[in-house]
Amino acid sequence: MNCTKCPTSTKAVIGLPRHNAAFCKDCFTTFVHEQVARAIKSHKMFTPEDRILVAVSGGKDSLALWHILLKLGYRADALYVNLGIGGYSEESHRKVQLYADTVAAAHGATLLVHVVEQEAGAGIRELATILHRPTCSTCGTIKRYQFNRAAVEHDYDVMATGHNLDDEAARLLGNVLHWQEEYLDKQGPALPASVEGFAKKVKPLCRLSEREIAAYAVLNRIDYIVEECPMAKGSKMLLYKEVLNRLETESPGTKQRFYWGFLDKQTKPESAPESMAAKDQRTLHPCPSCGQPTTADTCSYCKMMAKAKTAAR
Amino acid sequence: MPFAIRLSQPYHRRMIVQLSHPTRQVEIKGPKRTKELLRELNLVVEAHLVIRGDELVTEDEMLADADRIEIRPVISGGV
Ligand SMILES: [Zn+2]
Ligand SMILES: [Zn+2]
What we know:
The complex is a heterodimer.
Chain A: E1 14-16, E2 21-23, H1 25-42, E3 51-56, H2 60-71, E4 75-82, H3 86-102, E5 111-115, H4 116-120, H5 124-131, H6 135-153, E6 158-160, H7 165-177, H8 181-184, E7 190-191, E8 200-202, H9 210-219, H10 236-250, H11 254-267, H12 276-283, E9 285-286, E10 293-294, H13 300-312
Parallel strand pairs in A: 3-4, 3-6, 4-5, 6-8
Antiparallel strand pairs in A: 1-2, 7-8, 9-10
Chain B: H1 2-7, E1 15-19, E2 24-28, E3 32-33, H2 34-40, E4 48-52, E5 55-56, E6 62-63, E7 68-73
Parallel strand pairs in B: 1-7
Antiparallel strand pairs in B: 1-2, 3-6, 4-5, 4-7
The structure holds zinc ion (2 copies).
C-alpha cells in the first residue's frame, strides 16, 4: 500500500478506509493536524491568543492532543489529576511528567499536578466504596471538578479534553439506546462557559478516530500508557465502542456519519416540527394509474407491475 | 521465559506476537499478511494497530517469521 497523497508514492504506514486513503508518516501527521485545525475553526473552540488547559491522563488521546496543540503553535498547558489508583496512577503520572519534561517544556508549556489522595483523603477505590457509586463515575466527577477549578483559578480561557470520535459516537449510542434526550443537548464538541465559575470546554479531537490518534502517538514517539484504566473493565462504553468498531470494519465511515449526522441536526435551527399527518398531506398525491396515495409520479406498485408486464412480453 | 529456549533452535522459529489485555505473547507461523494475522487472532482492524519492530505497518503488509510484532489495542476506557 502506497501513500495516496505523495506524488512520489512513498510506502504508507496506515490505511484510512473511511477516507478511502492511505498515508505515509508525514502525510498522516499533516492529515491529523488539519483535522484538529478544522475542528477548532468550525466549532469556534479558541484563538491563538487564548490560554488553553489540556486535561491529561497519560493515555494516548490527551497526550496526543497536548502534542498537536503545541505543534500548531497554541499556548497550551496541562493538568494531570493523580487519582491514587495504585500502580496505574503511578505509571500514568510518570508518562505525563516525562512528556512534560522532554517535549512540552521546549515549547514553553507547563504541567500542573493535583493529587486526589492528599486533597480528598482517600483513593478512588475507597471513595467509590464510601459513596456507593461506580468507580468510573466517581473518577469522572472528580476529574471534571478538579479540571474546572484549576482552569478557573489559573485564569485559563478554555479547557480542552482528549475525547475522540469513538468516545463521542459511543456516548451518543448510549444516550440514544436509553433515550436520554436531556444528555443529547450537552454532547457538542464545544460547550460554552454558560454559568459564572464554569470554564469553556472543547474537544479538538472529535474528528479523529481512536485508531488514528493511537497511530499518531506511535508515529510521533509519544510514550503513553497502553493499559486501560483497571476500573473501566466491563464498562458499557467499552461495549458500545466494540460494537461500533465491528460496524466500522464492515462499513467504513459509520462512526463518522453517526456522530456528524447528530451534530448536523443539532446545529440546524429547528423549524416547528411538522406533524406526520401534515407532512403526508403535503407530499402525497394520488397515483395517476391506480389512485392510491404516493410521493412519486407513479406509485412503486404500479411501476413494479409495469416492469413485470414488459418482462413477460 | 520458556519460548526463549525454543528461539535458540532456528528451525522452530516463528514470528513472536505481543498482545495486550491481558499482556501475553504468542508464536505464529509466517509469512502472513497483517490482516490475516488479525483475522486469525479474531481481532478487529478498527480496534488495533500492528507494529513491526517500532514501525507501524498497513493491513496488506507481509510479515515474516523473523519479525517481532506488537498488536496494540487502541480502545481506551473510562470517561
Ligand atoms: Zn505521503
Ligand atoms: Zn476510571
